[in-house]
Amino acid sequence: MSDIAAPKLVRASALRRVFDGTPWRRAVILAGFALIWELYARWLDNALLLPTMGATLSALWAAIVSGELPDRTLTSLRVLITGYALGVAVAAILTTLAALSRWGNEALGLLTSMFNPLPAIALLPVALLWFGIGTPSLIFVIVHSVLWPVALACYGGFLAVPPTLRMAGRNLGLSGGRFVVEILVPAAFPQILSGLRIGWAFAWRTLIAAELVFGVSARSGGLGWFIYTSRAQLETASVFAGLLTVILIGLIVEGVIFRTLTRITVQRWGQEQA
Known about the structure:
By secondary structure, this protein is mostly helical. It contains twelve helices and no strands.
């Protein structure tokens, strides 16, 4: 191979890796959706029904500069993280009890059969009666939306742990909580991570829906309240700016947090292909 051809092959290989990468493909897909949105909005020519992509981005920038959208977003994220953490903690307790005793197993099966099919939004009237219009009501419905899918995913992962691995843990003298933490959790972590992803998605959309229904208050409401007030004022571009913010946060959490967690855990451990 000549000295001139070698650098060309290296550059071609580097370009191929760039264009074959997931971020590049996703960027192209998003650009295609944005172009379709812009063209259709211009053809429709009705900003009240569907603003253009440019008008939405302008409204998004204006809301960011004014400080309203960042404040609303941070309010929603604080509530979301609190409810999500509580839901995951309760799910961990229930699945641990289910893994260690038949009574816990029966309790988890009965509770998930009763409450998992119940939409979190259906509990809003109960939340209002118990906690009033405020953050505790939002946290209550978020915990409900997170708890059951995470618990089911975790326990399903525990059941899929091979018997030989369980026997190895028992032979090492592990029991109780140590058996769960050192044997079951690492072996079932792909399913647990999947449950955490599902729980996050349920929590995020439940929070936005709950804020759209009753918010918290005009001064302390979150991102859903921003969308609601923008709709009431017929500011459709701001409504789509709020929806775009919801989508962007979802992409960041999925593309950065969960992908990084997957890469440093199950992919490194050889439990999932990269």
